[in-house]
Amino acid sequence: MATPIRETENSPISTVSNRQLCTQRTRSNEITNLQDLEAGATVCCRICLENEGGELISPCLCKGSQQFVHRHCLDHWRSVKEGFAFSHCTTCKAQFEFLVVDL
Known about the structure:
This protein has a three-stranded antiparallel sheet with strand order 2-3-4. The relative contact order is 0.25. The N terminus is likely disordered. The chain contains three helices and five strands; from the N terminus they run ββαββααβ. By secondary structure, it is of the alpha+beta class.
């Protein structure tokens, strides 16, 4: 049986628009916070390595080039994983957090 994902109202998922190119990086090859993103740093999905294809989210505690994923890429990743990897990031070990919004 799958482990439920913790839903929280207090910690929304960070998002980034997909208009930036993955080929550019900051000097240290790491994006440390959203101020860096606004200053011209670029990001891409750590799973598909693309920046096109949807909104990028930050569902765990990873930083730098591992921070962002497309929601659909993460959903696919989770669909083929079981146990710990279904509900937790295998890099930073944090439980995935998703903000549920009532429309």
